[in-house]
Design a protein that fits this description.
Layout: E1 2-5, E2 19-20, E3 26-28, H1 36-44, E4 49-52, E5 75-79, E6 85-89, H2 96-113, H3 122-133, H4 154-172, H5 177-189, H6 199-202, H7 210-217, H8 219-228, H9 235-243, H10 264-279, H11 290-300, H12 307-317, E7 325-328, E8 333-340, E9 343-351, E10 354-357, E11 366-369
Antiparallel strand pairs: 1-4, 2-3, 5-6, 7-8, 7-11, 8-9, 9-10
Helix pairs in contact: 2-3, 2-4, 4-5, 4-10, 5-9, 5-10, 8-9, 9-10, 10-11, 11-12
């Protein structure tokens, strides 16, 4: 690596280490190819010098190793007229994660449909979860989207995604490794009690009556009862089924538990449950913006969800999104160029050469994340 002053920085150089602001926020990530607009950003944040790799990697140089910026095989990186770097997928290969994810959804569907008449195949489910987690680095909670999700399979996709996100969140908050798979089970099975709820109530698009709401709430108790009979699942995973709708201020159900009375697994699963319930497409409701959902989860951290776990979830899930292409709520398409550590859901977005600061333009928000 070489340390160069800002006046020496030219487009095509590759960063040898993260560039941070004076407040410690990551401005540009290690490995990024410097573009003309990045130089303007560096000037705006008064960055004096940066670490770069010794060899130039600009398009047209004799050695273009690394010029793709880490994109996957089958993709190419081009620089458009505005100096924006864009990844185009020549052929969209199905990732190993996606293949094992789809196998997991099928296995979960079969297990759920037979759970009232047969024992849950926990060991088989665990084996497939382990295969899935081998490829966890390919999973990004904000950008992952199932392929060709059938309307009536929402329940099974939701279960698997809650398992994956809960597993990842358990790692992020530094739970012991022995807990990770059990937390995944907690996410996978948290709503299994819905199998005993009238499906017409579960799929009702209009408002529920008081009696119907009360029946829905019984799914937490039903789930605990089903999991009591399951082998290789610990009490924490069972309690997550019972407690994932409890709130730290005591306003949840079914037992109106508070703070420390709620099992840590249930607190983790509650966050994953809300996120995926709102960002997955449903029969009667379109998927919501993951960034807006993160803002709602953040607001519920005050009295409803565990604030320390919420903080980790938001910080870690938004950490690596500089350079991500997004569609704003006004349909403009741009690219995230900077995320403030204190306001990660309100980044700065470059749109056609102009920088939109979502912290200042609060009427706008990120509507979609683009591939």
């Amino acid at each position: 690596m070489a340390l160069v002053t800002l006046s020496e920085v030219k487009p095509g150089l590759k960063l040898g280490s993260d560039v941070e602001t004076l407040r410690g926020n990551v401005l540009l990530q290690k490995g990024k190819i410097i573009l003309p607009k990045d130089i303007e950003v560096l000037k705006a944040f008064m960055i004096g010098h940066i670490d770069v790799e010794q060899e130039r990697t600009a398009a047209g140089s004799t050695n273009t190793k690394g010029a793709s910026g880490g994109t996957e095989a089958g993709s190419a990186t081009v620089i458009d007229k505005n100096g924006d770097q864009t990844t185009t997928i020549a052929s969209a290969p199905v990732t190993a994660f996606m293949e094992d994810y789809e196998k997991m959804v099928t296995l979960t569907k079969n297990a759920f449909l037979s759970s009232l008449a047969a024992e849950l195949p926990v060991y088989e489910l665990r084996t497939q979860l382990e295969a899935l987690f081998v490829h966890l680095k390919q999973y990004n909670v904000l950008t992952f989207s199932p392929r060709n999700m059938k309307e009536h399979d929402y329940v099974y996709h939701h279960a698997v995604l809650c398992a994956v996100t809960s597993y990842q969140l358990a790692q992020w908050i530094d739970l012991p490794a022995k807990d990770w798979m059990q937390v995944a089970f907690a996410g996978l099975f948290h709503d299994i009690g819905n199998n005993k709820v009238d499906p017409q109530i579960l799929q009702k698009p209009s408002s529920l009556t008081n009696d119907e709401q009360e029946e829905i709430r019984q799914h937490t108790k039903y789930g605990y009862q089903i999991l009591k009979q399951a082998k290789a699942i610990n009490e924490g995973a069972r309690l997550a089924a019972l407690q994932h709708h409890e709130k730290v201020d005591g306003s949840g159900y079914p037992l109106q538990l508070t703070g420390t009375q709620i099992h840590i697994y249930a607190k983790i699963v509650a966050i994953a449950d809300i996120f995926h319930a709102m960002t997955l497409e449903k029969i009667y409701r379109k998927a919501q913006s993951p960034y807006l959902v993160l803002e709602q989860i953040q607001s519920e951290a005050f009295g409803k969800l565990d604030p320390s776990i919420v903080s980790v979830f938001i910080q870690r899930s938004t950490r690596i999104h500089n350079g991500l292409r997004v569609r704003l709520s006004n349909n403009q398409i741009g690219k995230i160029i900077f995320s403030d550590r204190d306001h990660p859901t309100r980044p700065m977005v470059s749109v056609e050469g102009s920088i939109i600061n979502l912290m200042q333009q609060t009427q706008l928000y990120i509507q979609d994340i683009l591939a």
